[in-house]
Amino acid sequence: MMIDSIIGTQWAEKVPAVIPVYNIAGDQDPVGLYGEGVYAVSSWLAETGNQVKTKIYSGYRHESHNYRDIRDEVEDGMIDFINEIIAVKGN
Question: Is the entire prediction scored with pTM above 0.85?
Answer without folding.
Answer: no
